[in-house]
Design brief:
about 300 residues, alpha+beta, Topoisomerase I, domain 2, 4-stranded antiparallel β-sheet, 14 strands, about 30% helix, elongated, Topo_IA_core_domain, Topo IA-type catalytic domain-containing protein
Length: about 300
């Protein structure tokens, strides 16, 4: 448990172990490319074989040789994998988490309007983020995955007593809007759950009366993240985002909480720029041990 905590695969809150996105990715990679070793029956069968070795009925060298020949084949196949293929596998596996507010047809880069937002691994493997696939022509980064990535995860991964509630239908559309509950709280979802289909979702911040949420509230939340304009320093977008923690201003790796007294619908670019230089900003995605890192780069 300590080892996987040190590697940021899980966090422990009280007596409950919560998987981090890094841990989810490692698990998906092993299940996909080391299927035999990741199978639960593998450990049980190996324990039986080791008991046989201890009892003298199985020769240990033969057991090791048999295991290594099979395991080495998995390692060889994995070593030849292209990073892009691994990214696409993870993107397909965690699409509903990575792109909770976007469907496959609307992942157009908001910066260049030509590229597509994709899951990316930074050049030195220090972090994971959503960025434009036209790099280096377009260096837009939507977000890293160390902040707010799991807040709208589908509710079928936990046992919940909350019954999804139909709020209504989107205007000029036949798409139903639901209020649902996931492992990180309540969220809005457009459309019913269909396996393999990514649905647009929006997390809810803490509310005293969950039964008071209306279709109008849902439609309001579904418009975020919303671009306010471009930052004068680098022409990259400044956005208003919404998560379980509330409304925030985002620019690249910087988040600034919106004051509770501020109306997110009336926030201007000028006001947002001031908030991004305030004392309460959060900077994330910086590789450990590097004081002044270069911008994240993609694998060639």
């Amino acid at each position: 448990p300590l080892a996987i905590q040190d590697r940021n695969h899980v966090t422990v809150k009280g007596q409950v172990v919560h998987p981090e996105f890094r841990g989810r990715m490692v698990s998906a990679f092993l299940t996909h490319h080391f299927s035999e070793v990741a199978d639960l029956s593998f450990t049980a069968n190996l324990e039986t074989e080791l008991d046989n070795v201890s009892a003298g009925s199985t020769e240990w060298k033969g057991l090791l040789k048999d295991f290594w020949e099979r395991f080495n084949k998995y390692c060889g196949n994995a070593s030849r994998l292209q990073v892009r293929k691994v990214e696409r596998m993870l993107e397909e596996k965690f699409g509903s988490i990575l792109f909770p507010d976007l469907d496959n047809d609307s992942r157009i880069c908001p910066s260049c309007s030509e590229g597509t937002l994709r899951l990316k691994v930074s050049k030195h493997g220090e972090g994971y983020f959503i960025g434009c696939d036209r790099h280096p022509k377009c260096k837009y980064i939507a977000r890293t995955l160390s902040v707010e990535v799991d807040e709208t995860e589908a509710s079928d991964e936990i046992q919940s007593t909350f019954t999804p509630r139909l709020l209504g239908v989107l205007p000029d559309s036949d798409e139903k809007v639901f209020l649902k509950q996931g492992p990180y709280g309540h969220y809005i979802q457009v459309g019913e759950d269909i396996k393999g289909v990514s649905r647009k979702r929006a997390p809810l911040s803490e509310v005293k009366d969950i039964d008071s949420i209306t279709l109008e509230d849902a439609i309001e939340l579904l418009q975020y993240p919303k671009i306010l304009g471009k930052h004068p320093d680098d022409d990259l977008p400044v956005l208003v985002t919404h998560s379980k923690s509330g409304f925030r201003i985002r620019h690249r790796r910087t988040l600034a909480p919106l004051p509770k007294s501020a109306d997110p619908k009336e926030i201007t670019l000028e006001r947002a720029l001031k908030l991004l230089t305030g004392k309460n900003v959060i900077r994330f995605g910086r590789p450990k041990g590097i004081k002044n890192p270069e911008p994240l780069e993609y694998h060639s």
